[in-house]
User: Fold Malate dehydrogenase from Geomonas silvestris.
Amino acid sequence: MARKKIALIGGGQIGGVLAQLCALRELGDVVLFDIVEGLPQGKMLDIAEAAPVDGYDVCLKGTNSYEDIAGSDVVIVTAGLPRKPGMSRDDLIEVNSKIMTSVAEGIKANAPNAFVIVISNPLDAMVTLCQKVTGFPYNRVIGQAGVLDSARFKAFIAWELGVSVKDVNAMTLGGHGDDMVPLVRYASVNGIPVMELLENKYKSKEKAQEVMAAMVKRTRGAGGEVVALLKTGSAFYSPASSAIAMAESILKDSKRVLPTCAFLQGEFGVSGYYVGVPCVLGAGGVEKILEFKLDAEEQAMMDKSVAAVKELVGSMK
Ligand code: TXD
Assistant:
């Protein structure tokens, strides 16, 4: 059976980590595309030369030509500028829309049967544009943001409670913006509600709520926190790991339930927009959207987040 093939469009900070993670996990042969001459070729040669050390047997190719992505099973898009300190993700919409249009045309022409995972920001708008320009079915075009936002939320909970990150379960919904919706009610440590553990730890309901509110706030601002520290770009290790989790579930038909920026057609009361919701990701891409009842507070936060996505998408020319 031939190896799977993954195309990475954008060979920058995230693209390079994506390529290395694909290789380390032997997800398939990898093609790294960028418009900068030599950049993808140099990074892929470097990763290929580490193969004898880390022991992966996959073909790794860097290219400036879209023809080389032909036959890809999954395409992951990071092409686009990252933000600088003081910028919001939305500030990138104009420049990255132009880039995404050319990228989507390249994918449509050369990998018409691929599943596409968009990472470029502003994510909710870029995945919308990518689907529109490629014309691919909605189940084959998704955005990565919720796996990252949920990972950040889970990390903060694990650090606060002093438990393994492996035993924390939590999810964010909605857009990849400041209005994202970390679901406190469903956050647990092996099924034990986090709020109960916080109340036990602090012997106070108020203090527990205060600590949780701070973690929710930090989750919403976590991207900006890294940008402010790095000064020259944005997070790239965690977004790469997050997109690989999604790609792996599709390539291996794992049916993982992952927060995914998916096209809603009535689910959660939303129609016609890409929004972060729990999806079953398998060989069919988005195979199912798992709906569940939101309480009044969660619904209000979701409505606010969806409104922000609608405004962002509406602002695209
Ligand atoms: O989780 C998430 N969704 C977000 C996404 C998390 C963090 C960062 N997020 C966004 O991903 C970020 O705001 C950017 O919009 C993208 C890529 O971030 P990265 O840090 O990888 O940016 P780089 O290092 O600048 O890499 C972008 C590459 C760079 O090598 C350019 O030469 C290339 O994109 N580029 C292009 N490739 C193909 N085609 C075109 N037209 C093009 N223009 C630039």
